[in-house]
From TrEMBL, chains A, B:
<dbReference type="InterPro" id="IPR003694">
    <property type="entry name" value="NAD_synthase"/>
</dbReference>
<dbReference type="GO" id="GO:0009435">
    <property type="term" value="P:NAD+ biosynthetic process"/>
</dbReference>
<keyword id="KW-0547">Nucleotide-binding</keyword>
<feature type="active site" description="Nucleophile; for glutaminase activity">
    <location>
        <position position="161"/>
    </location>
</feature>
<feature type="compositionally biased region" description="Basic and acidic residues">
    <location>
        <begin position="498"/>
        <end position="510"/>
    </location>
</feature>
<comment type="similarity">
    <text>Belongs to the NAD synthetase family.</text>
</comment>
<dbReference type="GO" id="GO:0005737">
    <property type="term" value="C:cytoplasm"/>
</dbReference>
<keyword id="KW-0067">ATP-binding</keyword>
<feature type="binding site">
    <location>
        <position position="188"/>
    </location>
    <ligand>
        <name>L-glutamine</name>
    </ligand>
</feature>
<dbReference type="GO" id="GO:0003952">
    <property type="term" value="F:NAD+ synthase (glutamine-hydrolyzing) activity"/>
</dbReference>
<feature type="active site" description="For glutaminase activity">
    <location>
        <position position="125"/>
    </location>
</feature>
<feature type="domain" description="CN hydrolase">
    <location>
        <begin position="4"/>
        <end position="258"/>
    </location>
</feature>
<feature type="binding site">
    <location>
        <position position="434"/>
    </location>
    <ligand>
        <name>ATP</name>
    </ligand>
</feature>
<feature type="region of interest" description="Disordered">
    <location>
        <begin position="490"/>
        <end position="513"/>
    </location>
</feature>
<keyword id="KW-0520">NAD</keyword>
<dbReference type="Pfam" id="PF02540">
    <property type="entry name" value="NAD_synthase"/>
</dbReference>
<dbReference type="Pfam" id="PF00795">
    <property type="entry name" value="CN_hydrolase"/>
</dbReference>
Length: 590, 590
């Protein structure tokens, strides 16, 4: 057996910021060297950030990615770090002749091994995910190589992300070819409770590959995706050895004892078990094991509970969306209700209350407690606030056009949206919208009104979970939260009956069923794609099934116009679910 | 040789309207029978409409598609049409065990042969397009069969849409197996000048398959896609035999003389030349040729020129978006400028001027000619109009919040957007937005202002083409246009200098280069994906290149919030081009 100290660089890259990402790779490699690591593993497409969507179809972008990789290799050597091998993800190209249906330039979701100033070997993801949030058949061609490099006597294989999730391919080939360690750079987005699935997967693949597995995942927010980190090391039997934290950057080092190999170098084709052939490239960096040393104890980060996990995801998503898009501050309307109260709290935790601006916009229908509850939150959190009553503006509109019923309600919501957008344009704040997933699903919101803005922190959070998260936050905090307040959310905002307050004595339950009932139905219809018969068989009220299905189907256009927001569930309304707007199909109950 | 009369049903299905599509299939089959056809061919996924996006992931939807197909077969028989074979597209399922990365339920983009009340055989698309507007790896698994049925002595093969576009697969197998005729149901969306590409493709594939080819394409608008019809028949040498019109429904019949076959029925595996095996299923409907008859002369529809083609596409897109979404009328703001003038004209041509409502919303910065030009258009077209000055509403806002510069300009655009949305909510009109592609590309529009609405007819039309289309329409008409007016667009709207009129003496050229220069640069950057170095090498001004690239890249968020509109170019800003919002990558000129 031979020892290796592996450094897992669980980092937060910025999409498109090749120079910045490269800079941070150098810094973290230096840290890893200082900690005595023998290998540093960065995440999937770390140099370019992930996902980059149609940027990969630009020749100049792929050129820049490849150039940056080669510069990084040289720079590591110049800065005295060349002896420490680095595995890092980037975008490369396959050099295939163009053909119909092949992404322009044949890009590869690639990973490279850097050593002594050189790019020693390159590989690319074999299985391309094209479901849920992934569109990779659009962007990449598949890789067909599996590098296995000898490092201090141990054979180390590299397989990118999805290659762990699907049957056959590189992992199956590792099992046939034999290796002492499989490392996997990932950019695997968060979904609630995905960490359990992920650990089980890593354990299973380690057993299939017959070797220890190092799984390094991206962390950070990128548009609608939040990456949770949660990097994992398991041994060859699938036992958990080390685990990094969630929703925070971390350079995790782990000492492993691994089998020594003397397999011949060269190129060897293998049947990948999925109809394709994968060529194993065996090469030797350093044949001899390191001198024995005292291993450091491995750390296994404590995991957050469900609400802590979701809340931390939302905070990180807001922080990164603000920072990576170059905003300094946010603005939102504060109604006194729970949705805007939770959104304000997330924002305060993300960027600090001094950079959060709230506007109280009472109308003729606002209740006394609304203003009072909003003011109480301002007091507790110390955010910046102003009041802008909307009655006179609404009157000015109504002098030009006659509106009644829903049209008049929408007008009020739109006046508020315009005030926020005006202040955003004037002062450069990013507008946060405050709608939740239950509203978004049923279309209970106003186009260009409460849905106007740049980012929607709780758009994938059902209303019942909005209350749960608020209670959780009033009872808990995490080191990464920037708001220092006990019980930051007024109890009254949590306990009072929800109302849009767009007409006298309005209640959400005038238009919608109670949220506990609605959210269960939405979960079955949207997340589980159950048909109306199945929904009724599952115990939902038949009349409600018909009504809610109709609401959800008709709200497709509104949802498309909604700002992006962090994905929390398997089926968010952003990248995950795409219906035609022009659609006559309705589930029926007959 | 044997004769066959084939009916090509170039129709406009509605997505999700299975019963309605089935009803019309019966009616058109009756027409085809009346015309003495021996075979009727409907388009790809005709029964469900195309594209249906995530609907195919619903079990209940796929069930309904299969059930509808079987009902249609029985109903054709009941109505005395059972002897006439019908080929029609629908959605089926492959019956595969679930696995990671496979679309839920393993749906198939299928086509079936109906005869004597039965579904005689089923096949499915083999090549799944996953580029441009297509996401079919997300939705379908691939078919691996090629039915060849003997019809009055002639062997007829069926291959769906994309199977014509890619190398290898069913067409290659037809060439090996031998057939007398290849029929292909399609849903191939319009792009300018695609008709030329399509004819050339059909000719080439006919020669490869060694037989005549019948290409039947969908017509109609579906969200952002417009299908142009343009169904084609070529003989085995690739010569054009018959061609249907563009942008209109048509039951085209054609008489062909085709080779007789006596090949054995059964199942035969073939190497498809793309790494897969395709099973040919040979079956016999009717072994003997029909009695000789006098063939009718074939019709080759005259083709529209570029501007006629684009304009007809926009008209059809608006008509179908309005009708298929259940609207009765549209509303738009009429400024006196060319964009809103052209949009109003398209709307009048699509649904008739009596269902078009325009609102004139002068501000303190509107010039005299603006109102006069708008009123002149109202007079020429007979659309419904009203005036709603915005100054008092703007004042009411400015009493609550202090706005200056761009923020104040945006406010005016938003007040107009809110007036239109208010009237839309009150009266049920669909709001049409009037922005063009040059504005959309550079972000020269106001979020929730001029971009507020339900459909954006000219969002994929560059400004220079807005002028060209306006001139074309003033000089031309087509039978399908509902507006009866000579020169419907006031000349002054076409010739005057463009201005947003949001501040005194504003001109578009204050913020943007002249449109002739801008549009050429946008075409090279957006459509051709050229990098900054290539753009400069192509003769664009370096400073302008940097500026425009920055404008385009930063406008990604605005474009995402824009309403859908008909796709006209290869790279529209709807389904075709997807960049991250959070993105630090900028083309540089160094």
């Amino acid at each position: 057996m031979a020892q290796l100290r592996i450094a897992l660089a669980q980092m937060n890259p910025s999409v498109g910021d090749l120079d910045g990402n490269a800079e941070r790779l150098i810094a973290w490699t230096r840290d890893a060297a200082d900690r005595g690591a023998h290998l540093v593993v960065f995440t999937e497409m770390f140099l370019t950030g992930y996902p980059v969507e149609d940027l990969v179809l630009r020749t100049s972008f792929v050129d820049a990615s490849i150039r940056t990789l080669e510069e990084v290799a040289r720079r590591l050597e110049r800065e005295g770090l060349g002896d420490l091998p680095v595995v890092v993800g980037y975008v490369d190209r396959a050099g295939l002749a163009p053909r119909v249906g092949q992404p322009k330039g044949a890009p590869l979701d690639a990973a490279a091994l850097l050593h002594k100033g050189e790019v020693v070997t390159r590989t690319a993801k074999h299985h391309l995910p094209n479901y849920g949030v992934f569109d990779e058949y659009r962007y990449f061609v598949r890789g067909d190589r599996l590098p296995i490099f000898r490092l201090h006597g141990v054979d180390v294989a590299i397989a990118v992300c999805e290659d762990l999730w699907q049957e056959g391919g590189p992992v199956a080939v590792v099992g046939q070819a034999g290796a002492g360690l499989l490392i996997s750079p990932n950019a695997s987005p968060y979904e609630k409770e995905k960490d359990d699935v992920r650990l089980e997967l890593c354990a299973r693949r380690a057993r299939e590959a017959g070797c220890a597995l190092v799984y390094v995942n991206q962390v950070g927010g990128q548009d609608e995706l939040v990456f949770d980190g949660d990097s994992i090391v398991v041994d060859a039997s699938g036992e958990l050895v080390a685990r990094a934290g969630q929703f925070r950057e971390e350079l995790l080092t782990v000492d492993l004892e691994l089998p020594v190999s003397d397999a011949e170098p060269g190129f060897f084709p293998y049947d990948a078990g999925d109809g394709s052939t994968i060529t194993v490239e065996r090469l030797v960096l350093s044949p001899d094991p390191v001198e024995p040393y005292e291993p450091a104890p491995a750390t296994i980060a404590e995991h957050l509970d469900l609400h802590g996990e979701v809340y931390a995801a939302l905070v990180l998503a807001v922080r990164d969306y603000v920072a990576k898009n170059g905003f300094q501050s946010v603005i939102l309307g504060l109604s006194g209700g729970i949705d805007s109260a939770l959104t304000a709290t997330i924002a305060s935790d993300a960027i600090g209350p001094s950079r959060v601006n709230v506007v109280l916009m009472p109308s003729r229908y606002s209740s006394d407690h609304s203003l009072a509850d909003a003011e109480e939150l301002v007091r507790r959190q110390g955010v910046n606030s102003r009041i802008a009553p909307i009655a006179d503006i609404v009157d000015a509109f109504e002098k030009e056009i006659e509106l009644s019923g829903l049209a008049a309600e929408n007008l009020q919501a739109r006046v508020r949206g315009m005030i926020l957008m005006g202040l955003s344009n004037q002062h450069g704040h990013l507008v946060l919208t405050t709608g939740n997933k239950s509203e978004l699903a049923t279309g209970y919101s106003t186009l260009y009104g409460d849905s106007a803005g740049g980012f929607a922190p709780i758009k994938d959070v059902p209303k019942t979970m909005v209350w749960e998260l608020s209670r959780w936050r009033n009872a808990n905090s995490l080191p990464q939260f920037l708001l220092d307040a006990k019980t930051p959310i007024p109890e009254n905002s949590i306990t009072k009956e929800p109302s849009a307050e767009l007409r006298p004595d309005q209640r959400d339950t005038d238009s919608l069923p109670p949220y506990e009932i609605l959210d269960r139905l939405l979960d079955d219809y949207v997340e589980k794609d159950m048909g109306s018969k199945e929904l009724i068989a599952a115990g939902h009220d038949p009349e409600l099934v018909t009504r809610v299905i109709r609401l959800v189907d008709l709200a497709e256009y509104k949802r498309r116009q909604y700002p992006p927001g962090p994905k929390i569930t398997p089926k968010n309304f952003g990248r995950d679910r795409r219906l035609p707007i022009t659609n006559r199909w309705r589930e029926t109950t007959d």
